[in-house]
Design brief:
Largest sheet: 9 strands, mixed
Number of strands: 31
Strand content: 15-25%
Number of helices: 16
Radius of gyration: 24 Å
Helix content: 25-40%
């Protein structure tokens, strides 16, 4: 384990760290080496200060529970900023402030903010260390909780500094919980800025750099995740001609041994992790996981699009995760994992709603209070999380750390939609597929602090994560067809596992049964799979989906595969209004696609 700046040989990094220490005035400075011994020491320290509770070693060896402050439970989208010199570069979907003005404001907030605390330096690599497709960041934080989570989620430590070398480039990531300690002041178990209005997650894509203040939770504080891997990386990818996307990556293998890789974009808490680790119900089919949240994609020498997961862990939503919905996730976090804001049982284990096991007669809820099943509140926060090493996933793909990535055959877009959107449809071509991605919408979930259940446009599931003008983002996606033979690009599909009947029941069973939809997509990629042409794209022909062994009412299947003409007309009108917000930054191709959709719908 290392302390101070002694091991840092990169002059630019050393100068920045000294400036940060002078600004934040910590009592101590600690350079993380990423070793197992360091991780164990940090976890013990968090136990001593009361932030961590060590779970039952027999039931969950080397696992811990943390409880955040109620003001710090999710991403704070309204306090997340993209700061540039020109507001048009940030676009209408991002919160914007002038870059230089925000830097001055943040410097005032960070002044002396680490007093009484240790400043931890976390060198980390997004992607395999040394890969030409990886990016190095250095997060400075005063939170040991951040240190241990980053150690699971990224490649941390000495090996990263060695790869950085004396003159390598890195993304500076400055984070503080915003809770300095006066001499003799007692600390709290979850230090953070208690007023949400004083939390700031700020990105400067033109530098690039990240400043995060006031939150110790998830995507607000683990700066390699949404901040670097999506908001900053998406801006870098636009300049360099690749894609940084909010996508899972899975491999689907047929009974004959044929394998295709699929990437899927879904808003948070809409089933990405479940799909990425699915146990297919169809005999002989196999799904292996390469990642559940982020995909970086580049065109390879053969003209195909290759994807890599830059993370090394899963930071998944706990409620709803069960042996029914995601048995592989349940097996992944049996050890060496961190749980945040779930309930603690009297046996020293964790519990949450829809875990698939009976509720305990007594537990301590996520706020530290006694709880029983007859309580009028949930035991776990709806956005409670598990942090687990990807290497522990029983179905991790052998190529999940391949520095060259894997070739993507199909893209899936989707979200939570109770009506209108069918179970699955395929785009006519690349441009139509980009149009479909731009039109995506979903009912909001507890993964952010907005109201839940509200329908909002979430194009490509990137609404909270695109680091530049989303009109330009659409143009960038369209441009991929100019960078290679368009026939070599992935086929594009839209899926919706969340359709409901008029009486509110789920029309599709989901979970492992989604393999039936993936099989049809696999067949389409292979040049088969019967389909019918409709105004919204290609839908499975009658009997094209393999429903063997599934007791699905015929009327439910009909509803799942029907094209609701009137509903789609409403979708088209709403999309036109949404497009108006991008002004002249919206590519003309998408306006043409919308007009073509309206014309097809008018013909029924």
């Amino acid at each position: 384990m290392a302390a101070g700046f002694e091991a840092i040989g990169n002059g630019e990094l050393l100068a920045w760290l000294r400036d940060v220490a002078q600004l934040c005035m910590p009592d101590n400075v600690y350079l993380c080496d990423g070793s197992p011994e360091e991780y164990a020491y940090m976890c013990d320290q968090l136990v001593r200060q009361g932030t961590f509770t060590r779970l039952n070693e027999t039931l969950r060896p080397d696992c811990f529970l943390a409880r955040s402050h109620p003001s710090d439970v999710a991403r704070v989208e309204d306090r997340t900023y993209i700061c540039t010199g020109d507001q048009a570069e940030a676009g209408p979907t991002n919160n914007w402030a002038p870059a230089e003005e925000m830097k001055l404001k943040m410097a005032c907030m960070f002044k002396d903010c680490m007093a009484g605390r240790t400043m931890y330096i976390i060198p980390f690599s997004m992607g395999p260390v040394g890969s030409p497709f990886s990016m190095i960041g250095v997060e400075v934080t005063d939170s040991p909780y951040v240190v241990v989570n980053m150690t699971i989620m990224t490649r941390v430590g000495t090996k990263v500094l060695e790869a950085l070398g004396a003159d390598g480039k890195f993304v500076p990531c400055l984070h503080s919980v915003g809770a300095p300690l006066a001499p003799g002041q007692e600390d709290v178990t979850w230090p953070c800025e208690r007023d949400p209005a004083n939390k700031y997650i700020v990105h400067f894509p033109e530098d690039p750099s990240i400043w995060s203040y006031g939150s110790g939770y998830g995507g607000n504080a683990l700066l390699g995740k949404k901040c670097l891997a999506l908001r900053i990386a998406s801006a870098v990818a636009r300049k360099e001609g690749w894609l940084a996307e909010h996508m899972l990556i899975l491999a689907l293998t047929s009974p004959e041994g044929k394998k295709h890789y699929v990437a899927g974009a879904f808003p948070s808490a809409c089933g990405k992790t479940n799909l990425a680790m699915m146990q297919p119900t169809l005999p002989g089919w196999k799904v292996t996981c390469l990642g559940d949240d982020i995909a970086w994609m580049r065109i390879g020498a053969d003209g195909r699009l290759y994807a890599m997961n830059p993370e090394t862990g899963f930071f998944g939503v706990a409620p709803g995760t069960s042996y029914q919905s995601n048995p592989n996730a349940m097996d992944t976090f049996t050890r060496n994992s961190i749980f945040t804001n779930v309930a603690l049982t009297d046996h020293g284990d964790v519990w949450w709603e829809e875990m698939g096991v009976p509720a305990p007669a007594h537990a301590i809820d996520w706020e530290g209070n006694d709880w029983s099943p007859d309580a009028d509140r949930k035991a776990a926060h709806p956005n409670s999380r598990f942090t687990a090493p990807a290497s522990q996933c029983p179905v991790i793909d052998p190529d999940w750390q391949n520095p060259a990535g894997v070739p993507i055959s199909a893209f899936l877009f989707g979200g939570r939609r109770a009506s209108t959107i069918p179970l699955v449809n395929e785009a006519f071509d690349w441009e139509h597929g980009v149009f479909m991605g731009s039109a995506a919408g979903s009912e909001t979930t507890a993964a952010n602090l907005s109201k839940t259940g509200v329908l909002r446009h979430d194009p490509f599931a990137m609404l909270p994560f695109c680091g530049y003008n989303m009109g330009d983002y659409f143009t960038h996606w369209l441009s991929m067809a100019d960078r290679t033979d368009a026939a070599k690009l992935p086929r594009i599909f839209f899926v919706n596992w969340f359709r409901k009947g008029d009486d509110g029941h789920w029309l599709w069973p989901g979970y492992g049964e989604n393999s039936r939809v993936l099989k049809w997509i696999f067949e389409r990629v292979e040049g088969g799979g019967e389909a019918v042409e409709t105004p919204i794209g290609y839908l499975p022909a009658p009997d094209a989906l393999d429903l063997s062994g599934l007791d699905l009412p015929s009327e439910d299947l009909s509803a799942l595969l029907a094209v609701d003409i009137e509903g789609w007309k409403g979708e088209a009108e709403g999309l036109g209004t949404y497009y108006d917000g991008f002004g002249d930054r919206l590519p003309g191709a998408l306006r043409k696609q919308l007009a073509a959709l309206k014309e097809r719908l008018s013909r029924g």
